[in-house]
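We modelled each protein-ligand pair independently. The example shown here corresponds to the flavin-adenine dinucleotide entry; the chain sequence is given first, followed by the ligand as SMILES.
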Amino acid sequence: MQPFQKPLYYAGLRDIFAKRGPMGDESMHSFVKRRFGPDVAEYLIDPLVRGICAGDCREISVSFLLKELKETEMKSRSIMLSTAKKLFMKKKSEEKKSKPELARKAEHEGWSVWSLQGGLETLTDSMVDHLCNNGAEIKYDTKITSIELQGKKARIKMESWEEIETEQLISAIPAISLASLLKKSHPGVSKILQDIKCVTVGTVITTVLMRHGMTYLGGGGDSLSGSVVKTEVC
Ligand SMILES: Cc1cc2nc3c(=O)[nH]c(=O)nc-3n(C[C@H](O)[C@H](O)[C@H](O)COP(=O)(O)OP(=O)(O)OC[C@H]3O[C@@H](n4cnc5c(N)ncnc54)[C@H](O)[C@@H]3O)c2cc1C
C-alpha cells in the first residue's frame, strides 16, 4: 500500500525482533522508527502528530502519545507480543464481567467511532449547566490583566476592572500569557514560563483531484495530514 514500501505486517514483525531501546527519553520518531520501521514513523506517526498538535514528532517526546508503548518496551521485549497477551487476558477477564447494554451493542456492531446526539458540545453544555446549578459563576470573554500572589491569596484583575480574590487558582491559559501576568509579583516563575517555547501555527487544507476521484490531502485536527483521508469516486 503506497506510500509504504512493504505491507504493514512487516512493521509488526520488525517489532518482534527489535532490540530494546535507550532507558531515557527519546523522540516519538526515533522510537517508532526503531521498533516499527522508517515508513511507519514517516507516513503514520509524523502526519498524525502534525494533525493532532501541529508538532514535529522528531522533537516531541515519546511520552506525549506513546508513553505506554515505551513502558511496554522497557518491561517486555516485543510491544506486539505484549499487547496481544494483554488483549487476550483482558478479553478473558471481561467475559466474566457483565457489561452495560450500550457497551455490548458497540462491541457487537464493531463501533470504532462514536459521538453524542447533538454533537460534542452537548458535553460542555452539560458541564456548564451542572456547574452553574451548583453555584459556580462563569465569566466569558473576560481578559485577565494581572495576577498578584500575596501570602495564601491570589488577586486577579480583569480588563473590565473587576477583581477577584481567591485561595485557589488554576490557570489554563498558555504559559507565555501567564508569564506576563506573573512578571511583577513572581519574576522567577514568570521567567520559567517564558522559556517554554511557543509558536504560531497555520493550517493548510489541500484538496487534490486524482484520476480515480477526489482525494483530500492534508487537514488538521484528527485527520491524517499528509495521508489520504477520504476518497470519493466520481
Ligand atoms: C492545528 C492543531 C490541531 C489540533 N488538533 C487536535 C485534535 O484533533 N484533537 C485534540 O485533542 N487536540 C488537538 N489539538 C490540540 C488542542 O487544540 C489543544 O491541546 C487544546 O486546544 C489546548 O486547550 P487549552 O484549553 O489548554 O488551551 P487553549 O485552547 O489555547 O486555550 C487557552 C485560552 O486562554 C485564553 N487566554 C490567554 N490569555 C488570557 C488572558 N490573559 N485572560 C483570559 N484568557 C486568556 C485564550 O484566549 C484561549 O482561549 C490541535 C492543535 C492544533 C494547533
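The longest helix spans residues 79-96.
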